[in-house]
Design goal:
53% of the residues lie in helices and 13% in strands. It is elongated and about 115 Å long.
Length: 427
């Protein structure tokens, strides 16, 4: 039998790492390059299952992580347990992590300085070994030349060339070593010490630096965090987050997630009452937005504050009609069956943003008016009814429509192919 080339301890560590890298419900899985920092660490606070990661592509192709608990749905065809946008949880855990390692900034800087010092000493040792080998090669070539018989002129001439080549190589390596030590000294200078201390003191800058990859951030989080348990309060924006640190300490907090609509907000009754009060007092949409932001109200989606347009959508959802500005009367006349986008949205009882998105996707026909610089939608009576019916389609049904259309097309193609084959004469 051959002797083992690794110890039993190293073998056990390798097997434990392979087991942890497997993509299973009981393991964290290998670190990947996606932007979800808590992939493999998130657990559902309702059923206890491991939550998976899905990505949604936003503007400019940016990926937004979504943590989903779909174990019951995939195993038992039950309803999906819960899901939420991952950016809010990632930001919360990142803040806790940076706050936890901040007291160790000095130790981190000293360790980094020691690591740099050790790396430079290792590189310097490699250079000195190369110089030693070159010196040995030159000495060997010298001894071979001196031991050769003068009568063997051809041999002596070859040995002389080898000696000169060895001397030239030794001189070249010596000059490169001098240039290397001048550019990067073996010891860390005082200025480099200060730079390392500054980076250690400003850990958020190091965390957000372009040179720090998502894989590096995930690896650091996994060294300090064992599990992150998430519980969404119903369908609201409130999320209970429990972080289990390495060693067993637990940290509990509540974060706010983006939701799809206003009615999902836990403070929606207070928000609606306050918006009605401000609108009844004659405040403009800008003034209402300023008051709502000052009182701590926040919109449902990723926008951090209320804007006048968001207030307009809120008032429309509450059934509050605002007086239009006189500038609307100065707009150019439109052709038959043409609507200003705002007018058609009010007629359909839907958001202007949604109707504008439909025109951009091609679900409705529209164009940008060259004079008023406002969007115009072409919609006759039949088209208006179609848009109204489309607006009343349940949420999420739009994503199923292309899939259902493709399924129906494939089934029709299969039936047509079978029918054609049946009509062919048999030979």
């Amino acid at each position: 039998m051959l002797p083992a080339y690794i110890s039993i301890e190293q073998y056990e560590r390798n097997m434990a790492r392979l087991d942890a890298n497997r993509s299973r419900a009981q393991s964290m899985g290998a670190v990947r390059d996606g932007p979800a920092l808590l992939a493999g660490l998130v657990a559902c606070g309702r059923c206890g299952s491991k939550m998976t990661v899905r990505y949604q592509r936003g503007r400019a192709g940016k990926l937004h992580p979504v943590y989903v608990c779909s174990r019951a749905k995939s195993d038992y065809a039950a309803s999906q347990c819960q899901q939420l946008a991952g950016s809010c949880v990632d930001a919360h855990v990142t803040g806790l992590l940076l706050a936890a390692v901040a007291p160790a900034a000095l130790e981190v800087s000293l360790a980094a300085a020691g690591q740099v010092q050790a790396q430079r000493e290792q590189v310097d040792r490699i250079w000195r070994q190369r110089l030693e080998r070159a010196e040995l090669a030159a000495g060997r070539a010298r001894r071979q030349y001196q031991l050769a018989e003068p009568e063997n002129r051809l041999v002596v001439r070859q040995l002389e060339q080898d000696w000169e080549a060895a001397l030239a190589e030794r001189q070249r390596l010596g000059e490169e070593y001098d240039r290397f030590t001048a550019a990067r000294p073996r010891t860390v200078t005082a200025a480099e010490h200060e730079q390392i201390r500054a980076l250690a003191a400003d850990l958020p800058a190091v965390w957000d630096a372009p040179t720090t990859t998502d894989a590096d951030r995930k690896q650091l989080i996994r060294h300090l965090v064992e599990q992150v348990r998430i519980t969404v309060a119903g369908a609201s924006e409130k999320v209970e987050v429990e972080v289990t640190w390495a060693g067993g300490h637990r940290t509990r907090a509540q974060v706010t997630r983006p939701v799809a609509c206003l009615t999902q907000l836990s403070c929606y009754p207070q928000l609606a009452a306050r918006a009605r009060e401000l609108a009844g007092s004659g405040c403009t949409t800008a003034q209402i937005a300023e008051c709502l932001n000052a009182e701590g109200f926040r919109p449902p989606k990723r926008s951090p504050v209320f804007t006048p347009n968001a207030v307009t959508d809120l008032l429309r959802a509450l059934g509050i009609q605002r007086s239009r500005t006189p500038a609307r009367r100065n707009r150019p006349a439109l052709a038959r069956h043409e609507w200003w986008l705002r007018d058609l949205a009010e007629h359909l009882g839907m958001s202007e943003v949604t109707l504008d998105a439909w025109t951009r996707r091609g679900w409705a026909t529209g164009y940008l008016h060259p004079q008023a610089r406002l969007r115009v939608v072409r919609a006759g009576p039949a088209e208006v009814e179609r848009l109204r019916a489309l607006h009343h389609v349940p949420r999420g049904q739009h994503n199923r429509r292309p899939w259902l259309s493709n399924q129906a097309a494939s089934m029709n193609t299969g039936r047509e192919g079978t029918h054609d084959n049946a009509d062919e004469p048999r030979l």
